[in-house]
Amino acid sequence: MKSHLLAIATLCFVSTGFNLSVDAQDDFERRHLKHEGSLLLTDIAQNVESDSQTAKDYFNRGNLYQKLGQMEKALAAFNQAIKLDPNYAPAYNNRGLLYKQLGEKVKALADYNQAIKLDPNYAPAYINRSFLYKQLGEKAKALADLNQAIKLDPNLAPAYNNRGLLYAQLGEKAKALADYNQAIKLDPNYAPAYNNRGLLYKQLGEKAKALADYNQAIKLDLNYAVAYINRGLLYTQLGEKAKALADLNQAIKLDPNLAVAYINRGLLYYQLGNFSKCKKDLEKASNLFQQQGNIQMYYEVMRILRQLQK
Fold first, then answer.
1. Pick from 129, 170, 188, 267: most CB atoms within 10 A?
2. Which residues are within 8 A (CB) of 266 and not within 5 positions of it... i.e. 6 or more apart?
3. DSSP strand E in 158-304: where?
4. Is 116 helix (H, G, I), strand (E, B) or coil?
5. Backbone angles phi, psi at 280, to 5 degrees
6. Is residue 156 helix, strand or coil?
7. Is the pLDDT assigned to residue 17 strictly greater than 90?
8. What domain range includes position 249?
9. Longest dimension (CA), the chain
10. Closest CA to 82 of 36, 114, 122, 35
11. Is residue 141 in a domain?
12. Is residue 45 part of a domain?
């Protein structure tokens, strides 16, 4: 039984910045790829109730509504911005982000393409399109877009972070490490780069460096659930199961819909001999995967649950 449970443990390290799968990715995109003309949340709140009718006004309203989770209003605002100014590239870019968040990948890709057509020098659209290409399995196109984004703006830390993640997935670990290092050099407060570099160090067997990076990611962002998951997994491997459990509990507290957190806590409960809690967490994970459309992981967790019942 233990071999069946541990079989998916290696799948449950969570990487971010290309994400996002994890909600932190969407938050990352909204925080870092917002058009420079956007207003801060407190400024936009006043704008929503104003009588302003420009494309930029509707664009800013769309950003606010999206941040508040009011997706229908956000979409309506972006649509109006584009209606008022069909050449406003940032509106297409951010509507593409919204479509991606809603699972409408074809519409998202069309909007990113249009943003780039209108402004071939608009680096954020290349970053966002690269992420979508990666989701679609087109890694060569994803890498090309990230290269172009970096060419257009060599100081854009998220572009290096995302390219580093792609290099890591392609097995080019030296290039991945160089990109994570550059992202951190450009923005020493950029938590996702520390998290991803921590993952890479862990893969390279450098657990001390990995732990230091996870600690720094959490120090920079105390609400960064995926960093708690990754640190929890590392603590498990280091035999510090109490710390591991505390981190996984915190990840779930921060993001109750993060299915991988329940898998990893369930696996830890199994190691601790608490089979009822293990089963409960795995059932929760399977339900979340099903709700979120991750059918592959849903069936994998269901397979393990069936083994538990034997």
1. 129
2. 277, 278, 279, 280, 281, 282, 285
3. none
4. helix
5. -60, -45
6. coil
7. no
8. 1-18+225-310
9. 65
10. 114
11. no
12. no
Q: Please write the tens of the pLDDT for every residue from 87-146.
A: 999 999 999 999 999 999 999 999 999 999 999 999 999 999 999 999 899 999 999 999
Enumerate residues 6+ apart whose C-beta is below 8 A from 82. Answer: 55, 88, 91, 92, 95
Q: Which residues contact 32 (CB under 8 A, 6 or more apart)?
A: 157, 158
Taking the C-alpha atoms of residue 273 and residue 266, their distance in angstroms, rounded to an integer, is 10
Domains: count for the chain: 1
Q: Show the tokens assigned to 143.
A: 């890498």
Here the CATH number for the domain that contains residue 267 is 1.25.40.10
| Integer Cα distance of 201 and 183 in angstroms | 16
Whether residue 75 lies inside any domain: the answer is no
Tokens matching residue 223: 């609400």
- Residue ranges of alpha helices (H) inside 170-240 are 173-186, 191-203, 207-220, 225-237
- Rounded to an integer, what distance in angstroms lies between the CA atom of residue 92 and that of residue 98? 10
Does this model's pTM top 0.85? My answer is no
In a domain, 194, yes or no: no
DSSP assignment, residue 12? G
Q: Which two tokens stand for residue 1?
A: 């039984």
